[in-house]
TrEMBL record:
It comes from Aspergillus penicillioides. It comes from the Eukaryota. The keyword Transcription does not apply. Residues 16-176 form the AMP-dependent synthetase/ligase domain. InterPro entries: AMP-dep_synth/lig_dom, ANL_N_sf. Keywords: Phosphopantetheine, Phosphoprotein. This is Nonribosomal peptide synthetase. Pfam families: AMP-binding.
Length: 201
């Protein structure tokens, strides 16, 4: 499972605070709030993660690259870190290789999400890395029944064909607050779902 939190885990939260804080608390884990100044200072962040014996955190690939440049043997500083979620940017294969080498005992998760849909796809980098590729895939959709790749006519494309990603299902946001026109443009009827009122983004 992507989420294997348990009581005793210590999760450092900052970037997506509302999502990050609820997930560990609902599983009996401890939340460590990362101050904004530490989020923008790689040395301060590593010091905090080490001092609080953090077992899981989330950061952007750019921040991870900066940390690895400063601390190439980071596992010695963060021996308790069991899971690192990467989100917000594309993960390059080069960064993935460096992270795997620097954090051999840490699960490295590459995730793709949007505010409108919550998590879309997430996977373990070690299971998906292709050294011939420039970028790491994000893994399979978390709700494959409601993930569609469509052409310009709104029809599903064949496997291996480019298209635009649309997401449906129960995790969609309801609307953009006080922006009905923007909501109507972004959220459309989901013709692939027989549920009354089903929408996709």
């Amino acid at each position: 499972a992507v989420q294997d939190l348990q009581p005793g885990d210590r999760v450092a939260c900052n970037v997506f605070f509302v999502w990050e804080i609820l997930r560990p608390l609902l599983r009996g884990a401890t939340v460590i709030a990362v101050p904004d100044d530490a989020s923008y200072d790689p040395a301060a962040l590593v010091d905090l993660l080490a001092a609080k014996r953090v077992t899981e955190t989330l950061m952007t690939p750019t921040l991870l690259a900066t940390i690895l440049s400063r601390y190439p043997h980071i596992t010695a500083r963060l021996p308790d870190l069991r899971a690192l979620w990467l989100n917000g940017e594309v993960v390059s294969t080069d960064l993935a290789r460096r992270a795997i080498k620097a954090l051999p005992n840490t699960r490295l998760l590459n995730c793709y999400s949007t505010c409108e849909t919550h998590e879309i796809a997430c996977g373990d980098i070690r299971d998906m890395i292709d050294i011939e590729s420039i970028y790491c895939p994000v893994g399979p959709p978390l709700d494959p029944a409601h993930a569609y790749i469509l052409n310009e006519s709104g029809e599903e494309v064949e496997l291996g064909t480019s298209g635009e990603l649309f997401i449906g299902g129960s995790l969609l946001a309801r609307e953009y607050i006080n922006l009905p026109d923007t909501t109507a443009k972004a959220f459309t009827s989901d013709k692939f779902d027989a549920t009354p009122g089903a929408r996709m983004y």
